[in-house]
Write a structure and sequence with these properties.
Elements (H helix, E strand, L loop, with lengths): L1 H6 L2 E4 L4 E6 L4 H7 L5 E7 L2 E7 H7 L7 E12 L9 H11 L5 E4 L4 E6 L3 H9 L4 E3 L2
Parallel strand pairs: 1-8
Antiparallel strand pairs: 1-5, 2-4, 2-5, 3-4, 5-7, 6-7
Amino acid sequence: MIETLLAKTQLKLYPEPVVVVGLDPETRRQVVELAHRDGMISLVFLPHEVTMIVTEALWQEAGSLFPAAKAESGFCLLTLDITLPWNVVGYLARVTEILAEAEISVGVISSHASDHLLIREAELPKAIEWLANLGVTFKSD
């Protein structure tokens, strides 16, 4: 079943490089003010940390508001373009397993309808090649 789902999956590349930013929970109000801005991709609020994924352009514009931020740039965002029912087991595990075999570090953002991979820009071609071995296709716009 997983192989069939992978063969139906297309990769879509977000058009801009992204930055992963770790913040202190006290920055919540400042972060919320950025939420409506173009370039805000993801926000995660936990009791001990705030994480945001933003475009490099937004981070260059607004990063000075967060001098204590832990920011890592140079990431690409790949969407696994397939909507999976919540009872599917092992799909994302297989995707991350193949990337681990290729020694590609990956972060994952799961949204309601799809999963997204954070991959270093330098590793993008290799990641696409290895995922193609699973039957996943790359869709360029």
